[in-house]
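Q: YjiS-like domain-containing protein, please. Structure only.
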Amino acid sequence: MSMALTQDRSAPLGAFKGPRSRFASFWTATTKAWARHASYRRTLSELRALSDRELADFGVVRCDIRRLAREELLKD
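A: Structure for YjiS-like domain-containing protein:
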């Protein structure tokens, strides 16, 4: 009794993308990155506009603003 070995030569879905598909993926990733960066800058700007007293009400000190904006960015 002999067994025939078979190999699955089917490529994963999307393994062979054409130039248009690669460009569309690149464009989508770039657009998402710009949107995330804009959200980060908006959060940073809004937090920086608050007074020290207002930040203290939230339990935040001014030196934590960048870290908080970055953490908000990573949530998405």
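A: Brief note, in case it's useful. The two ends are 56 Å apart (CA to CA).
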